[in-house]
Amino acid sequence: MEKRTEIGEVGEFGLINHIASKFTQKQDWTDLGIGDDTAVLDPKGNKVVTTTELFIEGVHFDLGYTPLQHLGFKVVSVVLSDIAAMNAIPAQITIGLGLSNRFSVESVDALYEGIQLACEEYKVDLVGGDTTSSPQGLIISMTATGVVEADKLVQRGTAKPNDVLCVTGDLGAALMGLHSLEREKQVFLANPDMKPELEGKSYVVLRQLKPMARFDMIHEFRDVGVVPTSMIDCSDGLASEIIHLCNASGLGARIFEKNIPIDDETYLAATEFNVSPLTAALNGGEDYELVFTVSQEDFPKVEKIADVTAIGYMTNIGNERVMVMKSDAIVDLTAPGFGKQ
Amino acid sequence: MEKRTEIGEVGEFGLINHIASKFTQKQDWTDLGIGDDTAVLDPKGNKVVTTTELFIEGVHFDLGYTPLQHLGFKVVSVVLSDIAAMNAIPAQITIGLGLSNRFSVESVDALYEGIQLACEEYKVDLVGGDTTSSPQGLIISMTATGVVEADKLVQRGTAKPNDVLCVTGDLGAALMGLHSLEREKQVFLANPDMKPELEGKSYVVLRQLKPMARFDMIHEFRDVGVVPTSMIDCSDGLASEIIHLCNASGLGARIFEKNIPIDDETYLAATEFNVSPLTAALNGGEDYELVFTVSQEDFPKVEKIADVTAIGYMTNIGNERVMVMKSDAIVDLTAPGFGKQ
């Protein structure tokens, strides 16, 4: 039987000390990490970007199929993805943790294992937090700060007409991963002796359980000497993000169905689940790719970056958010939460 | 009947726009507030301090006697108090909000009214957040950033032996406020027609419902040209905070019962509730006063500040955390969560 240590046995201060002992501060930006009233960051003349997200069990994640290590990694990726979307470099994260009495010291350790792996992957420091009890389930609030040179900061609303609209990676996979995991959960609930059937789903499942914030792209942009003219991360699906870019810039956008990058495994899974692969890409969400624009001048430099796809361009027709289908038909882009734009 | 608008009617983006429209960015530090992937802060060459707290209904607050406006104000005070404890100036806050379907747009408005009032009081900008549904109750995560000149930053562990140990304001009132409110709640539950009996409790109730982060003191320190040698805010009770200062500095501390500032109303309420006023001050918590040390040289300048009381001094006996009683007896300071030190 696995060891189970009640959090009450070590106490709040004991738990914090236990966690803090596993994290070493590595970043040049961090003057002070865990252990004082606040963390201290030295941005060395740069701007500081901040973002926060709240993750609630039963709303944002299902521990029925999400290992705590993966969850720890994922919450860091999700919040850092917003830092990437500003073309910034991540520096520090702080965490707020609400734990019901279902959670032991060992389960908190598992969560922090994933957080620690993410800290190493993204080269950020965990610099503080707040641990408390929760009447029900697991609550995680995650805040991140990053730094960016003033002339490299990229906002949502600063594209120009005819700028090339690009995305990184491929889209729709995370939703197909979610469908795969949900189906396996149902199968398991119906018959706990059944083996999970995730063959041919390894890519989409990984995209759901362990998404990556695309700082590799942020470094590529610096390497090729390009600053995107606008950028957003793809958390709610491509259509929603394009509408955000259009709303913020007062411009329109025109994208081409044939250019939207969708992985083969996503196609196959979508077919299996009777979902249109295109809908998965446009409205699936949780892919955490970057959606950005570059000037036509800069496009040749960006085009050389592996994993960047040009999908369309910005137009000066303020209310245009359309997709040209393979059939040449033109359809409006729509996203839940916005209604029809 | 009061108007009730379901959050589903306006949607997440609608709610965010509704809230954002009420907040204007006022701080010189804020380059970018709500509306992009992150907020942007220009620290203008200063260090940046960050802190986060998680507040969960039923654990940290009881909406049975806490008006949402007061709660909004309080959560900002609580998180900013940590910024004050670093001798820093507050700059920005971000909020994560988890709302069960019990909460309407109007109740979210009431919460934000209090947050807005706090933003004006403390001259900070609300620059971002995340709003989501919660399966049960209200969840608030609050993160704050502040700025501080490198030579004014004050940590916990930097006191020297013989430094004078001081506190601002008075202690124990917030706990007595909590007892008063809890009693009224029980009376109300037993008989909803009973009028609340909070006469003679206005100060302690206000200290519980609407605590203030002591930035007035931070400005006084700058005015008199003093940088405390160490500092912490008083969230868990004086004894706990002194133990933190001692642990962090490797020093001991000796305080005097006769010097501990306790308001008359706190005394009276404590007597009524059969609580020792001294215990309320030492272990009550939630007063959000500052506990700090200054060098003997600087003490005359600090002594002149109204609302500062010298309560003892730091010693070079590493394991000494004691209080000299009015009877001249010497007792060890203890705090829950630490065990006996």
Automatic annotation (TrEMBL), chains A, B:
Note: Reaction mechanism of ThiL seems to utilize a direct, inline transfer of the gamma-phosphate of ATP to TMP rather than a phosphorylated enzyme intermediate.
Binding site for Mg(2+) 5: 236
Protein name: Thiamine-monophosphate kinase
Function description: Catalyzes the ATP-dependent phosphorylation of thiamine-monophosphate (TMP) to form thiamine-pyrophosphate (TPP), the active form of vitamin B1.
Entry EC no(s): 2.7.4.16
Gene: thiL
UniProt-annotated binding residues for Mg(2+) 4: 37, 51, 82
Binding locations of substrate: 60, 286, 338
Keywords: ATP-binding, Kinase, Magnesium, Metal-binding, Nucleotide-binding, Thiamine biosynthesis, Transferase
Phylogenetic placement of the source organism: Bacteria, Pseudomonadati, Bacteroidota, Cytophagia, Cytophagales
Family stated for the protein in its record: Belongs to the thiamine-monophosphate kinase family.
Catalytic activity: thiamine phosphate + ATP = thiamine diphosphate + ADP
